Amino acid sequence: MVFVTGKGGTGKTTVAAALALLAARAGKRVLAVDVEAKGDLAAALGGGAVRFTPQALQRGIYAIALQAEESFQEYLGLYFKVPRLARMTPLARVFDFIATGVPGPRDMLVVGKIAYEERRRDKSGRPAWDIIIVDAASSGHVVSHLAAARAMLTLVRGGVIHSQVEWIDELVRDDSRSTVLLTALPEEMPVVEAIELGARLRSEAGISVSGCVLNRMVLVSVSPSQRRLAAALNRDSDAEEVRHRLGGDPAPFVESVQLASQLHDRSAEYARQLRAGLPAPVVPVPLETASRSGLAMARAVADALAKDGT
Amino acid sequence: MTVATERRRGERRRPAHREWPGFEMGERLGALRVVVCTGSGGVGKTTISAALAMSIAATQDARVLVLTVDPAKRLASALGIKGIGADPVTISRARLRRAGLPARGEVVAAMLDMKSAWDNMVERYSPDRRSAERILKNRFYQRISDAFVGSHEYAAMEALYELHEAGEYDCVVVDTPPSRNALDFLEAPARLTDYVGARLLSWLAGPSGVGLRAMNFAATPFLRLADRLLGGDVLSEVSDFVRQLQGLYGGVQKRARDVYRLLRSPQVGFVVVTTLEPGPFAEAEFFAAKLREYTMPLRGMVVNRVLPPTLREPSSAAAATTLADDPRIVEWIAQHLGERYAPDAVRGVGRIHLMFNALAQRDARALAKLERIAEVPVSRIPLFTDDVSELEGLVRIAGLL
């Protein structure tokens, strides 16, 4: 299980989709899980709305979205053998209210369902999925999801729940079966939050982060000769000739080169800060990917991640 | 009419700050008592809120409060905010002027303290001191005020309403919390009333004074189930909390109504902040539509981090493609421009420009769409490659608003 999380707007959904694509390329059977159920993950994988039951989106990729009410029903069904109730809405609402306030249950629904999928076997007895990629809740909430089992263990000391929760807790803390991948941008707040989140996951949930994808990085540096070239292409004396040979206007090159140089410095500085504060590998994804959207963007990010190799 | 008279007329009409660019947004919003900045997380909402407050202070002699939620360290230090719960910081007219703002008013910066906003609410609506304390000590309350969906939004709304009522400021600019969904802010009061007032909760709380634990568990499958799921202690704590909360119901409900009335009043305006990236952009469109649906006044949109428009030139993309793909161009440049550049350097310049050109074209498409659908002025703030770390940086943005 790979939980992908980070501050809102740092590209976690696209990274989750990219990982799903990479795994599918490698021939794996992938389950992509959209925790916040806003439909963004399915869109990034080129599909429409997905529900609570796995639905095929791409070759080898199935997706589910965790809606609270449905997860509640299935949770009861899975773990307590409670039949589906005909009129669940008011009950689910009350449960929702209680679950919000008590550490555990609501978050357990999320992590419990994912853990259930991890354990699921098909008819021939092999695991239903080779890999489960979770587009998890952003920063703060993901800690409560992943620490839910641990919190429940302190609350419930025996009975059905205790043993249920125990194996889930073991699962999420087992580095060989479950991991967290962060996302960030080369900007102040996202880097600060990624470092803090890494520390909180360690201290509150006992989970270590396996890496951080740093999106929208300008990786190529600009050399003095490139600045000279951009300026030389804009010399008045040669303007007509240059335009003709290049087939267009080179005037904006000066601005592009300038911008690239500033963004490159900023990217390098924040990558340094992130590496200094987070004891895990940092994988940069170039800014180029940001000019696309949806599946095309996820594919571009997948290519970038594959190239990095980490 | 001669040119001279025309010019003289023009001069007469010039407002005092004419030599400064912009501040139009400040002028438009200046008459409002409350400005709510919303948008996705990570679009620079807090920075824009602070700049908006300055833009308003530039156009009139007003005391403008900017209530921030979670400012980045550099921004907080630019504003002089020390931390959560610290006293509001006044940025005087003189200080604003030194930073380059032609200030007529002053700006006060404060940071929202979520926890105390909730505690204040409990204290305000509790029938007596004892029940207030009982709630504040309840473990369930302590958790819910933090984890409840929309709790931060509700706290922001409460603080906003209080500040508005106190009337200490001419205008309050509020930065909304980074929600999972921008709508959480609008729906927070209704949701809270909903929870507090839900009939099922009354039923959960049981007949007055009896409470959940005293009820016959075997009689209701739900309670049996809940007990199994959550454990008995938890349930009794919940039921106690719910019973206490019912005492607050009347107050909370009235407050929610008052807040909605305020948000719909002509004294209030919403400003949606976005970037041109697909995610935040879609969210901004959705939110603007929702405001219309709720009959809450959207007064402006701010598009942050726009790439320079010159980068979108289609003809420059053709030129960059030649640099990136035509291997003979290196030789041609050496012959015609008098300097020999490494082939990689030449290709690199082409590729760099192609990247920014593609991004700028995406910006242009999104901007065109926005201008087609927006019924309010759209302010564009260019991408600044440095984080705002000084008051001067905010003043620069204020001028562009």
Can you describe this structure?
The complex is a heterodimer of chains A (310) and B (401). Helices cover 54% and strands 14% of the residues of chain A. Chain A has helices at 12-25, 40-44, 68-80, 89-101, 105-119, 139-155, 159-173, 188-205, 224-232, 239-246, 253-277, 294-308, and strands spanning 2-6, 30-34, 55-58, 61-65, 131-135, 179-184, 209-217, 282-286. Chain A is elongated. The model of chain A is unreliable at 85-90 (pLDDT under 50). In chain B, 58% of the residues lie in helices and 11% in strands. In chain B, strands 3-4-2-5-1-6-7-8 form an eight-stranded mixed beta sheet, with helices on both faces. Chain B is elongated and about 90 Å long. Residues 1-20 and 207-219 of chain B have low confidence and may be disordered. Classes of the chains: A alpha/beta (310), B alpha/beta (401). Chains A and B meet through α4, α6, α7, α8 and α9 of A and α8, α11, α12, α13 and α14 of B.
